[in-house]
Write a structure and sequence with these properties.
Layout: H1 4-17, H2 28-53
């Protein structure tokens, strides 16, 4: 299974390809700044999802 950072990267690339995240090769610095913000938000969301989807620890352990 991919870690949150890898999943965020894969999702960001798919969103760029579909036009949901703007990316302009003529403005590389601006595009990278925007991408970095999206990557952080995606990674945070994925980590939050992983925390809520983890099975609860056994109370009898």
């Amino acid at each position: 299974m991919m870690d949150s950072k890898s999943q965020a990267w894969a999702l960001a690339m798919a969103l760029i390809a579909s036009g949901k995240i703007p990316f302009d090769p003529a403005n590389m610095a601006g595009s990278i700044h925007i991408l970095a913000r999206y990557l952080q938000k995606l990674e945070d969301a994925l980590e939050g999802e992983n925390i809520t989807n983890e099975p609860a620890a056994s109370a009898t352990a």
